[in-house]
Amino acid sequence: xxxxxxxxxxxxxxxxxxxxxxxxxxxxPGKADLLDAIAANGSISAAAKRMGMSYRRAWLLVDTMNxxxxxxxxxxxxxxxxxxxxxLTPLGVEVLARYRDMExxxxxxxxxxxxxxxxxxx
Length: 122
Fold this sequence. Notes:
Blueprint: H1 5-9, E1 19-21, E2 24-27, H2 29-41, H3 44-51, H4 55-68, E3 74-77, E4 85-88, H5 90-118
Antiparallel strand pairs: 1-2, 3-4
């Protein structure tokens, strides 16, 4: 699920929502973008390449997310003759949708304050 036009057009100095489980970031903007890329590309490797990160980094982020929720957000199949792949699980689809909704609500609720705050910045 991509960001809405309103989210993209709003403040450059916008808040970044992160949901923690203990010390681990269960999901945040980068991890949500990675989930979007996995959904769009059908693989962790292609998603990592699209985002300009190593496969290992992407895999570690997926592993952290999978460990923070009651089930995996991404299901992957090993490569082989036909190649591997990855897709969001139903839980992954729900977590991503709820995260994007919380992100939009946070931005909307802070719009007036961010406008005033931005005027205080260089």
